[in-house]
Design brief:
CATH topology: Rossmann fold
Radius of gyration: 18 Å
Largest sheet: 6 strands, mixed
Shape: globular
Strand order of the largest sheet: 6-7-8-3-9-10
CATH architecture: 3-Layer(aba) Sandwich
Number of domains: 1
CATH superfamily: P-loop containing nucleotide triphosphate hydrolases
Number of strands: 10
Order of helices and strands: EEEHEEHEHHHEHEHEEHH
Distance between the termini: 30 Å
CATH class: Alpha Beta
Number of helices: 9
Helix content: 25-40%
Oligomer: single chain
Structural class: alpha/beta
Length: about 250
Amino acid sequence: MSSIIEFKHVNKYYGKLHALKDINLKIEEGQVVSIIGPSGSGKSTLIRTMNGLEPINSGQLIVTGYDLANRKTNINKIRKNVGMVFQHFNLYNNHTVLENITLAPKIVLKRPDAENKKIAMELLERVGMADKADSYPRQLSGGQEQRVAIARSLAMRPKVILFDEPTSALDPEMIQDVLDIMKYVADQGITMVVVTHEMGFARKVSNRLIFFDQGHILEDRDPVEFFKHPDTDRARQFLSKIISKD
C-alpha cells in the first residue's frame, strides 16, 4: 500500500497556542483510521488540515499527491479527491436533498445531469433517504441530515473521506443509523479518517487507532490492542473515564 496522506514535521499555531506539535504520520490507501482523545486535544484541527480547511504553519503535508504547504497548490484539486463530513452536517438549506448531492459533481466534475441524478438516487437509496429526495434539510432530523451529508461526499467518488465527530450532534437513537452507513463506506475500500467519541466504532470498524492529546500523537496502534493494553499512562487514564467500551 502507498501513502495517501503524509504529515512531515507539521506544526499548527493559533496565536500562541501550539495546536499541532511536530506531527509525523502516514495514512495508507484503504485504511480506516479513528482518531480519539480528550476534547481540546487538537483532533479536529488535525483532520481539518487534511483538506486545507486549516492551513499549517510549518512542515509538509502531502494529500493525494498534492503538497498543502505549497502556496501554488490548487486546493480544489485536493477537494475533488477528499470528501468531508462535518459535525453539524453543513447542507445547503435552500436546496433539496437531491440538489445537495448533485451540485458539487455537476460544478466540479462536470458530470452530466442524467448520470448525476442516477448516482445521487442510488446513494440516497443506499443511505435510506430516497423518499426524501425532494425534501429540504429543515424538514429532516439530524440523523437524516448526516446520512445525506455522507451520500453527498460519496457522490464525488473521493479517494478519502474525513469525518469530524459525525455523531456528536445527534440524538442517541440516531447514532447507530449513521454508524451503519459509515461501516458501509469502510466496506467500499475508501480511505477514512474519523475523529470520533464512538469507542465501539473505533474498536470494531477501524483498522488503526490514533490516540491524540495536547497536540501530540501519543499512540498509533491496532484498535483491539489499544483497548486491551494502552501503552501510555495518559491513554489508560482516558479509557478509565469511558463508561462503555462496547
